[in-house]
Amino acid sequence: RALAPIDEQAGEILLRYFELPWDGTGSGAVPQRYAAVSLSGARSGVSLLGVDEDALVPLGIAARGKAIQGHSLTALGGSPALVLEPDATIDIALSGPGASLLSVDERALLGGANRLLLGEEILQFRFAHPLGGGAWRLTGLLRGRGASEQHAAAGHAAGTSAVLLDHALIALGQAGFDE
Predict the structure, then answer these.
(1) Could you tell me the sign of the dihedral formed by the alpha carbons of 101, 103, 106, 108, in that order?
(2) 32 forms bridges with which residues in the sheet?
(3) What is the pLDDT of residues 148-179, one digit of tens each?
(4) Which of 13, 148, 155, 168 would give a disulfide with 78, using CB separation of 3.0 to 4.6 Å?
């Protein structure tokens, strides 16, 4: 009896590419581009490729697929941003069955913990409550972080993509902008 290699098991690969506003470190002319890769069912990494004219070009970057991402289950109304909204909540569904989120105290929150990219808005959450089936309720929101106030003011519909901004992201594009 032959066993299938573990990296050929059926699963889903979820890839999201995005650019964040300059965070104040390093040169403001260097783009803050990231990829979030989540794998379910497979255990090996994936190789990321770029496009150069009509050809795929290896970037020399491999992703282990540990990013935590998903989508919102509920709508989130507009916010004036930059103030802690202790009663604000949003429910999200995470893509991986084993993915989890953590609650933090106020000190950790104000230190930058629990940053989440929801659509184009960067927000932070203080409490993460599991609802079962990969769904989580996030409360105690600090919205409009990282120059995303205009996206906080607009709000978000249910189904908006969400990515946890943590160490599992893959930094891309270290070259400066061409002018």
Answers:
(1) negative
(2) 20
(3) 999 999 999 999 999 999 998 888 866 444 43
(4) 155
**What distance in Å separates the CA atoms of residue 11 and residue 18, rounded to the nearest whole number?**
23
**Summary count for the chain: helices (H), strands (E):** 2, 11
Question: What residues contact 53, with CB distance under 8 A and at least 6 apart?
Answer: none
Provide the terminal-to-terminal Cα distance of the chain, rounded to the nearest Å.
Answer: 60
* DSSP state letters, 47-94: EEEEEETTEEEEEEEEE--B--EEEESS-B-----SSEEEEEEEEEEE
Report the DSSP beta bridge partners of residue 30: none
Q: What is the CA radius of gyration of the chain?
A: 18
Q: Are 117 and 163 in contact (CB under 8 A)?
A: yes
